[in-house]
């Protein structure tokens, strides 16, 4: 199923929900039918036992007459139970398929189709989780990344070459973070990293290393075997211990990213009070 197609996820969700409801309803009906058959068979046995208890002689004399009916009832019961077992196995398979579809949907809803990295939905949830425990925020850092040169690459050589570049950057980003860290594509040429258990210096050093790795990647141009392009990164960093909320943390990292790009130099910049003050003055001037 093409869950990654634009606008398809809501439709797929409705289909899965409908299939699940239909399957569960069928299971419920089959169980009710099985219970009814079992109760009917048990009632037949109780009648026979009651006759034996009330009048053993008459009960035994009637046994030959009841034997055929009992044999037919047992045979029918066995057939129905075998059919029920088959139908339940089919239902288990259907539910397995639905579970697989749900897992596919879950991954599709939190994964970027081009890079295979987490997407903005997953990033928003992960960012918010940093502040789930109120004031007990750990020493984490948010790094917002702008891939410099990607748009120019797309404009000059086509979207396909830009997509190829993104696919080459994805493993670089993935290998640059620790197991408990996080990376996501949050825009056309924008990525976000969450580093855990880091100081400001650590976060800046990691960002510089990622930037250097990206600049070492050669993007071969179409029909130009010996010509390649390189990309670079602008990175704005904010520390979780300084920010009051996930929104505040994102804003600080965004301001740092804007500041480093406004300077005309691609590089890494950590948010500071001075950056925040300049942004406030700029906002006030525009409002006035």
UniProtKB/TrEMBL annotation:
<dbReference type="GO" id="GO:0005886">
    <property type="term" value="C:plasma membrane"/>
</dbReference>
<dbReference type="Pfam" id="PF00990">
    <property type="entry name" value="GGDEF"/>
</dbReference>
<dbReference type="InterPro" id="IPR029787">
    <property type="entry name" value="Nucleotide_cyclase"/>
</dbReference>
<dbReference type="GO" id="GO:1902201">
    <property type="term" value="P:negative regulation of bacterial-type flagellum-dependent cell motility"/>
</dbReference>
<dbReference type="GO" id="GO:0052621">
    <property type="term" value="F:diguanylate cyclase activity"/>
</dbReference>
<dbReference type="InterPro" id="IPR043128">
    <property type="entry name" value="Rev_trsase/Diguanyl_cyclase"/>
</dbReference>
<dbReference type="InterPro" id="IPR050469">
    <property type="entry name" value="Diguanylate_Cyclase"/>
</dbReference>
<feature type="domain" description="GGDEF">
    <location>
        <begin position="138"/>
        <end position="273"/>
    </location>
</feature>
<protein>
    <recommendedName>
        <fullName>diguanylate cyclase</fullName>
        <ecNumber>2.7.7.65</ecNumber>
    </recommendedName>
</protein>
<dbReference type="GO" id="GO:0043709">
    <property type="term" value="P:cell adhesion involved in single-species biofilm formation"/>
</dbReference>
<dbReference type="InterPro" id="IPR000160">
    <property type="entry name" value="GGDEF_dom"/>
</dbReference>
């Amino acid at each position: 199923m093409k869950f990654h197609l634009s606008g398809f996820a809501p439709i797929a969700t409705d289909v899965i929900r409908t299939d699940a409801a239909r399957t569960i309803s069928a299971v419920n009906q089959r169980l009710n039918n099985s219970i009814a058959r079992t109760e009917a068979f048990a009632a037949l046995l109780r009648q026979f036992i009651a006759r034996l208890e009330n009048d053993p002689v008459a009960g035994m004399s009637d046994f030959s007459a009841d034997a055929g009916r009992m044999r037919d009832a047992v045979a029918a019961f066995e057939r129905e139970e075998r059919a029920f077992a088959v139908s339940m196995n089919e239902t288990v398979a259907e539910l397995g398929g639905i579970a697989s579809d749900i897992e596919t949907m879950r991954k599709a809803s939190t994964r970027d189709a081009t890079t295979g990295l987490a997407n903005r939905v997953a990033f928003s949830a992960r960012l918010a989780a940093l502040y789930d425990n109120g004031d007990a925020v750990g020493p984490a850092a948010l790094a917002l990344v702008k891939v410099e040169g990607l748009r120019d690459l797309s404009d000059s050589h086509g979207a396909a070459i830009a997509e190829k570049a993104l696919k080459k950057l994805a493993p670089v980003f993935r290998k640059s973070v620790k197991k408990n860290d996080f990376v996501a594509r949050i825009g056309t040429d924008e990525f976000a990293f969450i580093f855990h258990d880091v100081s400001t210096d650590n976060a800046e050093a990691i960002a510089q290393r990622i930037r250097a790795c990206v600049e070492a990647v050669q993007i071969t141009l179409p029909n130009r075997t010996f010509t390649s392009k390189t990309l670079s990164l602008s990175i704005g960093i904010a520390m979780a211990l300084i920010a009051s909320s996930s929104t505040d943390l994102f804003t600080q990292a965004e301001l740092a990213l804007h500041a480093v790009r406004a300077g005309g130099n691609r590089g890494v910049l950590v948010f500071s009070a001075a950056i925040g003050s300049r942004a406030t003055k700029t906002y006030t001037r525009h409002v006035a």
